[in-house]
Amino acid sequence: MTALTSGCGSEDESIGDRALSPAETWSAQREAAKSILATYPGQPSPIAITGAALLSATADPATTRISVTFTGARETASTPCGADYAGEAVESAAVVVVIVLEQRNSSGGVCTMQGTTRTATLNLARPLGNRELLDLQAQVVPVRTAYVPD
């Protein structure tokens, strides 16, 4: 299992000995995110990327940390049919596009399509503030404010 560190800009384009397909790579997903930023609030340029559709996000307005939820594999990549997830943000002054990269277990086998709610936590360059949060389908993601104890 290869681990990705959130927001590190890793250029590792493989999982174990399996090369990622072009649509699965960080670089391809970054390009799709940049296309969304360049055309927001209009329609992004058509790029064949199918990133995770984000269900929601939680952010502490005073920090740069954000957690996103999405539907993913039930188990971690250490098990057959499992996957690990890492997140990264591509940001502008008005918009943040979140990329979630999936790293599946490469052992193969027959897998069901059952999913569960998963999370990825990432850091922004600056707090989210009033910026829109989008996924790679250019859909606005609802953001909840994290509970911050006094």
Itemize the secondary structure elements and their pairings.
Layout: E1 14-15, E2 18-19, H1 26-39, E3 54-59, E4 65-73, E5 83-91, E6 95-104, E7 115-123, E8 132-134, E9 143-145
Parallel strand pairs: 3-9, 6-8
Antiparallel strand pairs: 1-2, 3-4, 4-7, 5-6
Précis, in short:
Helices cover 9% and strands 35% of the residues.
Q: In words, what does this structure look like?
A:
The chain has 150 residues and is mostly beta strands. It has one helix at 26-39, and strands at 14-15, 18-19, 54-59, 65-73, 83-91, 95-104, 115-123, 132-134, 143-145. The longest helix is centred in the N-terminal third of the chain and has 14 residues, at 26-39. It is globular and about 45 Å long.
